[in-house]
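In this supplementary section we document a worked example of the pipeline. Step one takes a protein sequence of length 422 as its only input; no multiple sequence alignment statistics are reported here. Step two produces a three-dimensional model, which step three serialises into C-alpha coordinates for compact storage. The input and output of this example are shown verbatim.
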Amino acid sequence: MELLKNHKSSIVLLVSVILGGTLGALIGPKAAIVEPLGNLFLNLMFTVIVPLVFFSVASSIANMASMKRLGKIMLSVFIVFTFTALIAAIIGVAGALIINPTKGVNSENIQKILVQGVNEIQNTNNTGVLQQFVNTFTVSDFVSLFSRKNMLQLIVFSILFGFSTAIVGEKSKTIANFLDSASKVMMEMVNIVMYIAPICLGCYFASVIGQLGPQILEGYARVFILYLMLSVIYYFGMFTVYAFMADGKSAVKIFWKNALAPSITALATCSSAACIPINLESTKKMGVSKDIAETVIPLGANIHKDGSVIGGVMKITFLLGLLGKDMTSFKSIITIIFVSYLVGAVMGAIPGGGMIGEILILNIYGFPPESLAIIAVISTIIDAPATLLNSTGNTVCAMLVTRLVEGKKYILNKFKANLNNF
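The serialised model returned by step three reads:
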Protein backbone atom coordinates (compact mmCIF):
# COMPACT_ATOMS: atom_id res chain seq x y z
CA MET A 1 0.00 0.00 0.00
CA GLU A 2 2.85 2.37 0.86
CA LEU A 3 4.44 1.65 -2.54
CA LEU A 4 1.20 2.45 -4.35
CA LYS A 5 0.78 5.63 -2.35
CA ASN A 6 4.31 6.90 -2.99
CA HIS A 7 4.43 6.00 -6.69
CA LYS A 8 0.78 6.32 -7.68
CA SER A 9 1.39 8.79 -10.54
CA SER A 10 4.40 6.85 -11.85
CA ILE A 11 2.50 3.55 -11.81
CA VAL A 12 -0.48 5.10 -13.64
CA LEU A 13 1.94 6.51 -16.23
CA LEU A 14 3.68 3.15 -16.64
CA VAL A 15 0.38 1.29 -17.07
CA SER A 16 -0.75 3.84 -19.68
CA VAL A 17 2.47 3.49 -21.65
CA ILE A 18 2.29 -0.33 -21.54
CA LEU A 19 -1.34 -0.30 -22.69
CA GLY A 20 -0.46 2.17 -25.44
CA GLY A 21 2.48 0.07 -26.62
CA THR A 22 0.34 -3.08 -26.63
CA LEU A 23 -2.37 -1.30 -28.61
CA GLY A 24 0.19 -0.03 -31.10
CA ALA A 25 1.67 -3.50 -31.58
CA LEU A 26 -1.81 -4.96 -32.23
CA ILE A 27 -3.10 -2.24 -34.55
CA GLY A 28 0.14 -1.48 -36.37
CA PRO A 29 0.67 1.71 -38.45
CA LYS A 30 -3.02 2.63 -38.09
CA ALA A 31 -2.24 3.54 -34.46
CA ALA A 32 -0.83 6.81 -35.83
CA ILE A 33 -4.41 8.13 -35.70
CA VAL A 34 -4.01 8.78 -31.94
CA GLU A 35 -0.62 10.49 -32.27
CA PRO A 36 -2.12 14.03 -32.14
CA LEU A 37 -3.16 13.39 -28.52
CA GLY A 38 0.46 12.56 -27.72
CA ASN A 39 1.60 15.68 -29.56
CA LEU A 40 -0.80 17.71 -27.41
CA PHE A 41 1.16 16.78 -24.29
CA LEU A 42 4.55 17.20 -25.96
CA ASN A 43 3.64 20.62 -27.36
CA LEU A 44 2.47 21.82 -23.95
CA MET A 45 5.65 20.50 -22.35
CA PHE A 46 7.88 21.99 -25.02
CA THR A 47 6.31 25.43 -24.57
CA VAL A 48 7.00 25.22 -20.84
CA ILE A 49 10.60 24.03 -21.23
CA VAL A 50 12.15 27.24 -22.61
CA PRO A 51 11.03 29.57 -19.78
CA LEU A 52 11.59 26.79 -17.23
CA VAL A 53 15.21 26.33 -18.28
CA PHE A 54 15.86 30.08 -18.34
CA PHE A 55 14.36 30.79 -14.92
CA SER A 56 15.78 27.67 -13.22
CA VAL A 57 19.35 28.10 -14.52
CA ALA A 58 19.45 31.89 -14.09
CA SER A 59 17.86 31.62 -10.63
CA SER A 60 20.25 28.92 -9.38
CA ILE A 61 23.28 31.00 -10.39
CA ALA A 62 21.88 34.39 -9.35
CA ASN A 63 21.15 33.05 -5.85
CA MET A 64 24.38 31.09 -5.55
CA ALA A 65 26.43 31.96 -2.50
CA SER A 66 29.69 32.41 -4.42
CA MET A 67 31.12 32.26 -7.93
CA LYS A 68 33.74 29.86 -6.59
CA ARG A 69 30.96 27.34 -6.01
CA LEU A 70 29.73 27.79 -9.60
CA GLY A 71 33.23 27.06 -10.90
CA LYS A 72 33.44 23.93 -8.76
CA ILE A 73 30.04 22.72 -10.02
CA MET A 74 30.95 23.27 -13.69
CA LEU A 75 34.30 21.48 -13.31
CA SER A 76 32.56 18.57 -11.58
CA VAL A 77 29.96 18.43 -14.36
CA PHE A 78 32.72 18.17 -16.99
CA ILE A 79 34.51 15.40 -15.08
CA VAL A 80 31.35 13.36 -14.46
CA PHE A 81 29.93 13.71 -18.00
CA THR A 82 33.24 12.77 -19.63
CA PHE A 83 33.78 9.82 -17.27
CA THR A 84 30.33 8.29 -17.81
CA ALA A 85 30.43 8.85 -21.59
CA LEU A 86 33.74 7.01 -21.90
CA ILE A 87 32.42 4.14 -19.75
CA ALA A 88 29.38 3.94 -22.06
CA ALA A 89 31.64 3.80 -25.13
CA ILE A 90 33.76 1.01 -23.64
CA ILE A 91 30.67 -1.04 -22.74
CA GLY A 92 29.26 -0.51 -26.23
CA VAL A 93 32.47 -1.70 -27.90
CA ALA A 94 32.71 -4.73 -25.60
CA GLY A 95 29.13 -5.70 -26.47
CA ALA A 96 29.72 -5.30 -30.22
CA LEU A 97 32.88 -7.43 -30.08
CA ILE A 98 31.20 -10.21 -28.09
CA ILE A 99 28.02 -10.23 -30.20
CA ASN A 100 28.70 -9.19 -33.80
CA PRO A 101 25.74 -6.93 -34.68
CA THR A 102 25.99 -7.73 -38.41
CA LYS A 103 25.80 -11.50 -38.08
CA GLY A 104 22.77 -12.69 -40.01
CA VAL A 105 22.16 -9.30 -41.63
CA ASN A 106 20.09 -9.41 -44.80
CA SER A 107 21.96 -6.96 -47.02
CA GLU A 108 19.19 -6.93 -49.63
CA ASN A 109 16.74 -5.38 -47.16
CA ILE A 110 19.26 -2.72 -46.25
CA GLN A 111 20.00 -1.89 -49.89
CA LYS A 112 16.36 -0.80 -50.27
CA ILE A 113 16.98 1.95 -47.74
CA LEU A 114 20.34 3.15 -49.07
CA VAL A 115 18.92 5.59 -51.60
CA GLN A 116 17.42 7.67 -48.78
CA GLY A 117 20.84 8.76 -47.59
CA VAL A 118 21.96 10.78 -50.59
CA ASN A 119 19.34 13.51 -50.25
CA GLU A 120 19.89 13.81 -46.51
CA ILE A 121 23.60 14.44 -46.97
CA GLN A 122 22.99 16.96 -49.74
CA ASN A 123 20.64 18.87 -47.45
CA THR A 124 23.18 19.10 -44.62
CA ASN A 125 24.83 22.44 -44.11
CA ASN A 126 28.61 22.00 -44.25
CA THR A 127 29.75 25.04 -42.29
CA GLY A 128 33.30 25.69 -41.18
CA VAL A 129 34.61 24.55 -37.80
CA LEU A 130 34.83 28.04 -36.29
CA GLN A 131 31.39 29.02 -37.55
CA GLN A 132 29.96 25.76 -36.21
CA PHE A 133 31.50 26.60 -32.83
CA VAL A 134 29.80 30.00 -32.91
CA ASN A 135 26.46 28.43 -33.90
CA THR A 136 26.74 25.91 -31.07
CA PHE A 137 26.87 28.46 -28.26
CA THR A 138 25.19 31.58 -29.68
CA VAL A 139 22.33 32.75 -31.91
CA SER A 140 22.25 35.81 -34.12
CA ASP A 141 19.06 37.25 -32.64
CA PHE A 142 17.65 37.45 -29.10
CA VAL A 143 14.29 36.12 -30.30
CA SER A 144 15.97 32.92 -31.52
CA LEU A 145 16.76 32.00 -27.92
CA PHE A 146 13.08 31.24 -27.34
CA SER A 147 13.17 27.94 -29.21
CA ARG A 148 13.83 24.49 -27.80
CA LYS A 149 16.02 23.90 -30.87
CA ASN A 150 18.48 26.41 -29.40
CA MET A 151 18.47 25.01 -25.87
CA LEU A 152 22.24 25.07 -25.33
CA GLN A 153 22.41 28.68 -26.49
CA LEU A 154 19.59 29.52 -24.08
CA ILE A 155 21.51 27.86 -21.24
CA VAL A 156 24.62 29.92 -22.06
CA PHE A 157 22.49 33.10 -22.01
CA SER A 158 20.85 32.01 -18.73
CA ILE A 159 24.24 31.38 -17.12
CA LEU A 160 25.46 34.82 -18.19
CA PHE A 161 22.24 36.45 -16.96
CA GLY A 162 22.41 34.68 -13.60
CA PHE A 163 26.13 35.44 -13.29
CA SER A 164 25.54 39.14 -14.02
CA THR A 165 22.68 39.27 -11.51
CA ALA A 166 24.91 37.74 -8.82
CA ILE A 167 27.73 40.23 -9.54
CA VAL A 168 25.41 43.23 -9.16
CA GLY A 169 24.60 41.97 -5.66
CA GLU A 170 22.04 43.65 -3.39
CA LYS A 171 20.83 46.02 -6.10
CA SER A 172 19.65 43.05 -8.16
CA LYS A 173 18.00 41.24 -5.23
CA THR A 174 14.56 41.96 -6.69
CA ILE A 175 15.53 40.29 -9.97
CA ALA A 176 17.03 37.30 -8.14
CA ASN A 177 13.84 36.87 -6.12
CA PHE A 178 11.75 37.18 -9.29
CA LEU A 179 13.80 34.49 -11.02
CA ASP A 180 13.34 32.17 -8.04
CA SER A 181 9.59 32.77 -7.91
CA ALA A 182 9.22 32.38 -11.67
CA SER A 183 11.12 29.07 -11.53
CA LYS A 184 8.63 27.76 -8.94
CA VAL A 185 5.68 28.98 -11.04
CA MET A 186 6.99 27.14 -14.11
CA MET A 187 7.40 23.92 -12.10
CA GLU A 188 3.80 24.25 -10.96
CA MET A 189 2.75 24.60 -14.60
CA VAL A 190 4.58 21.36 -15.30
CA ASN A 191 2.61 19.67 -12.52
CA ILE A 192 -0.64 20.85 -14.13
CA VAL A 193 0.38 19.60 -17.58
CA MET A 194 1.34 16.21 -16.09
CA TYR A 195 -2.31 15.54 -15.24
CA ILE A 196 -2.96 14.66 -18.89
CA ALA A 197 0.31 12.75 -19.29
CA PRO A 198 -1.06 9.19 -18.84
CA ILE A 199 -3.62 9.47 -21.66
CA CYS A 200 -1.45 11.51 -24.01
CA LEU A 201 1.74 9.50 -23.56
CA GLY A 202 -0.19 6.25 -23.90
CA CYS A 203 -1.50 7.44 -27.27
CA TYR A 204 1.91 8.70 -28.38
CA PHE A 205 3.61 5.43 -27.46
CA ALA A 206 0.91 3.46 -29.29
CA SER A 207 1.66 5.49 -32.43
CA VAL A 208 5.42 5.03 -32.11
CA ILE A 209 5.23 1.27 -31.59
CA GLY A 210 2.64 0.89 -34.34
CA GLN A 211 4.82 2.65 -36.89
CA LEU A 212 8.18 1.32 -35.68
CA GLY A 213 7.30 -2.37 -35.83
CA PRO A 214 7.52 -2.80 -39.63
CA GLN A 215 10.81 -0.87 -39.75
CA ILE A 216 12.71 -3.43 -37.68
CA LEU A 217 13.78 -5.61 -40.58
CA GLU A 218 15.82 -8.75 -40.17
CA GLY A 219 19.00 -6.72 -40.78
CA TYR A 220 18.36 -4.48 -37.78
CA ALA A 221 16.81 -6.94 -35.34
CA ARG A 222 20.22 -8.06 -34.08
CA VAL A 223 21.39 -4.48 -33.51
CA PHE A 224 18.16 -3.67 -31.70
CA ILE A 225 18.42 -6.72 -29.42
CA LEU A 226 22.11 -6.04 -28.68
CA TYR A 227 21.35 -2.42 -27.85
CA LEU A 228 18.53 -3.47 -25.52
CA MET A 229 20.89 -5.89 -23.74
CA LEU A 230 23.53 -3.18 -23.30
CA SER A 231 20.86 -0.72 -22.16
CA VAL A 232 19.69 -3.12 -19.43
CA ILE A 233 23.29 -3.67 -18.29
CA TYR A 234 24.07 0.05 -18.27
CA TYR A 235 20.75 1.12 -16.76
CA PHE A 236 20.67 -1.32 -13.86
CA GLY A 237 24.41 -1.98 -13.54
CA MET A 238 26.22 1.30 -14.13
CA PHE A 239 23.51 3.54 -12.71
CA THR A 240 23.71 1.51 -9.50
CA VAL A 241 27.51 1.82 -9.51
CA TYR A 242 27.31 5.59 -10.09
CA ALA A 243 24.78 5.99 -7.29
CA PHE A 244 27.01 3.96 -4.97
CA MET A 245 29.97 6.16 -5.90
CA ALA A 246 27.87 9.19 -5.05
CA ASP A 247 27.12 8.24 -1.44
CA GLY A 248 27.26 4.51 -0.77
CA LYS A 249 24.37 2.06 -0.31
CA SER A 250 22.01 4.75 0.96
CA ALA A 251 22.40 6.69 -2.30
CA VAL A 252 21.60 3.55 -4.32
CA LYS A 253 18.31 3.15 -2.46
CA ILE A 254 17.51 6.86 -2.82
CA PHE A 255 18.24 6.83 -6.56
CA TRP A 256 16.11 3.80 -7.41
CA LYS A 257 13.30 5.04 -5.21
CA ASN A 258 13.04 8.15 -7.40
CA ALA A 259 14.16 6.85 -10.83
CA LEU A 260 10.83 5.43 -12.01
CA ALA A 261 9.11 8.64 -13.14
CA PRO A 262 12.13 9.99 -15.12
CA SER A 263 12.60 6.57 -16.75
CA ILE A 264 8.98 6.21 -17.84
CA THR A 265 8.89 9.76 -19.19
CA ALA A 266 12.09 9.16 -21.17
CA LEU A 267 10.78 5.94 -22.72
CA ALA A 268 7.43 7.46 -23.58
CA THR A 269 8.58 10.79 -25.03
CA CYS A 270 11.96 9.83 -26.56
CA SER A 271 13.01 13.39 -25.78
CA SER A 272 15.66 14.48 -23.28
CA ALA A 273 14.29 18.02 -23.42
CA ALA A 274 10.79 16.89 -22.48
CA CYS A 275 12.28 15.09 -19.46
CA ILE A 276 13.91 18.21 -17.98
CA PRO A 277 10.98 19.10 -15.67
CA ILE A 278 10.52 15.62 -14.20
CA ASN A 279 14.30 15.20 -13.87
CA LEU A 280 14.57 18.47 -11.95
CA GLU A 281 11.84 17.37 -9.58
CA SER A 282 13.30 13.88 -9.08
CA THR A 283 16.91 14.99 -8.50
CA LYS A 284 15.80 17.36 -5.77
CA LYS A 285 13.91 14.46 -4.14
CA MET A 286 17.12 12.44 -4.37
CA GLY A 287 18.88 14.95 -2.13
CA VAL A 288 20.65 16.96 -4.83
CA SER A 289 20.89 20.65 -3.93
CA LYS A 290 18.78 23.08 -5.96
CA ASP A 291 21.68 24.90 -7.66
CA ILE A 292 23.38 21.66 -8.71
CA ALA A 293 20.14 20.12 -10.02
CA GLU A 294 19.23 23.25 -11.99
CA THR A 295 22.70 23.36 -13.54
CA VAL A 296 23.30 19.67 -14.27
CA ILE A 297 19.88 18.69 -15.65
CA PRO A 298 19.47 21.37 -18.38
CA LEU A 299 23.12 20.99 -19.40
CA GLY A 300 22.85 17.21 -19.36
CA ALA A 301 19.86 17.26 -21.70
CA ASN A 302 22.17 18.78 -24.32
CA ILE A 303 25.68 17.45 -23.74
CA HIS A 304 25.33 14.26 -21.67
CA LYS A 305 24.20 11.40 -23.91
CA ASP A 306 25.55 8.04 -22.78
CA GLY A 307 22.83 6.24 -24.73
CA SER A 308 23.84 8.11 -27.88
CA VAL A 309 27.48 7.17 -27.28
CA ILE A 310 26.55 3.48 -27.21
CA GLY A 311 24.38 4.14 -30.28
CA GLY A 312 27.42 5.63 -32.01
CA VAL A 313 29.32 2.41 -31.34
CA MET A 314 26.45 0.39 -32.83
CA LYS A 315 26.41 2.52 -35.99
CA ILE A 316 30.16 2.30 -36.50
CA THR A 317 30.46 -1.43 -35.84
CA PHE A 318 27.39 -2.15 -37.97
CA LEU A 319 28.91 -0.43 -41.01
CA LEU A 320 32.35 -1.94 -40.37
CA GLY A 321 30.75 -5.40 -40.24
CA LEU A 322 28.74 -4.83 -43.43
CA LEU A 323 31.85 -3.80 -45.34
CA GLY A 324 33.99 -6.55 -43.84
CA LYS A 325 36.45 -4.17 -42.16
CA ASP A 326 38.45 -5.05 -39.05
CA MET A 327 37.12 -3.82 -35.71
CA THR A 328 39.09 -6.04 -33.33
CA SER A 329 42.55 -4.45 -33.43
CA PHE A 330 43.64 -2.13 -30.63
CA LYS A 331 43.75 0.84 -33.01
CA SER A 332 40.23 0.09 -34.28
CA ILE A 333 38.84 -0.20 -30.75
CA ILE A 334 40.40 3.08 -29.60
CA THR A 335 39.14 4.83 -32.74
CA ILE A 336 35.60 3.48 -32.24
CA ILE A 337 35.58 4.67 -28.61
CA PHE A 338 36.86 8.14 -29.52
CA VAL A 339 34.55 8.66 -32.51
CA SER A 340 31.48 7.37 -30.65
CA TYR A 341 32.31 9.75 -27.78
CA LEU A 342 32.43 12.66 -30.25
CA VAL A 343 29.22 11.57 -31.95
CA GLY A 344 27.25 10.97 -28.77
CA ALA A 345 28.60 13.42 -26.23
CA VAL A 346 30.03 16.33 -28.23
CA MET A 347 27.96 16.48 -31.41
CA GLY A 348 24.76 16.29 -29.38
CA ALA A 349 25.32 19.89 -28.30
CA ILE A 350 25.61 21.20 -31.87
CA PRO A 351 22.48 22.35 -33.76
CA GLY A 352 21.62 19.46 -36.08
CA GLY A 353 24.38 17.53 -34.34
CA GLY A 354 22.74 14.15 -34.84
CA MET A 355 23.09 14.38 -38.60
CA ILE A 356 26.55 15.97 -38.38
CA GLY A 357 27.68 13.19 -36.07
CA GLU A 358 26.52 10.53 -38.50
CA ILE A 359 28.30 12.27 -41.38
CA LEU A 360 31.41 12.43 -39.20
CA ILE A 361 31.32 8.63 -38.95
CA LEU A 362 31.11 8.36 -42.74
CA ASN A 363 33.98 10.81 -43.27
CA ILE A 364 36.37 9.33 -40.70
CA TYR A 365 35.91 5.75 -41.90
CA GLY A 366 35.43 6.52 -45.59
CA PHE A 367 32.00 4.90 -45.79
CA PRO A 368 29.93 5.63 -48.93
CA PRO A 369 27.47 8.55 -48.59
CA GLU A 370 24.52 6.21 -49.07
CA SER A 371 25.42 4.57 -45.76
CA LEU A 372 23.82 7.50 -43.97
CA ALA A 373 20.39 5.92 -44.46
CA ILE A 374 21.54 2.72 -42.74
CA ILE A 375 22.60 4.43 -39.53
CA ALA A 376 19.59 6.76 -39.70
CA VAL A 377 17.37 3.69 -39.32
CA ILE A 378 19.49 2.53 -36.38
CA SER A 379 18.89 5.93 -34.75
CA THR A 380 15.16 5.37 -35.12
CA ILE A 381 14.94 1.88 -33.67
CA ILE A 382 17.13 2.63 -30.63
CA ASP A 383 15.55 6.01 -29.90
CA ALA A 384 13.52 4.98 -26.83
CA PRO A 385 16.22 3.07 -24.89
CA ALA A 386 18.84 5.65 -25.90
CA THR A 387 16.71 8.44 -24.44
CA LEU A 388 16.28 6.37 -21.29
CA LEU A 389 20.05 6.21 -20.79
CA ASN A 390 20.61 9.81 -21.92
CA SER A 391 17.96 11.40 -19.76
CA THR A 392 17.74 9.25 -16.63
CA GLY A 393 21.53 9.19 -16.58
CA ASN A 394 21.44 12.93 -15.90
CA THR A 395 19.78 12.32 -12.53
CA VAL A 396 22.46 9.93 -11.25
CA CYS A 397 25.15 12.23 -12.67
CA ALA A 398 23.65 15.04 -10.58
CA MET A 399 24.24 12.81 -7.55
CA LEU A 400 27.87 12.28 -8.59
CA VAL A 401 28.37 16.02 -9.04
CA THR A 402 26.87 16.53 -5.58
CA ARG A 403 29.44 14.13 -4.13
CA LEU A 404 32.31 16.09 -5.72
CA VAL A 405 30.93 19.47 -4.67
CA GLU A 406 29.37 18.75 -1.26
CA GLY A 407 31.33 15.71 -0.02
CA LYS A 408 30.18 12.52 1.72
CA LYS A 409 26.77 11.97 3.32
CA TYR A 410 25.32 15.18 1.88
CA ILE A 411 22.78 13.31 -0.27
CA LEU A 412 21.57 11.12 2.61
CA ASN A 413 21.27 14.08 5.00
CA LYS A 414 19.48 16.23 2.41
CA PHE A 415 17.16 13.35 1.51
CA LYS A 416 16.22 12.92 5.19
CA ALA A 417 15.67 16.65 5.51
CA ASN A 418 13.35 16.60 2.49
CA LEU A 419 11.33 13.77 4.05
CA ASN A 420 10.99 15.71 7.31
CA ASN A 421 9.87 18.82 5.44
CA PHE A 422 7.38 16.76 3.47
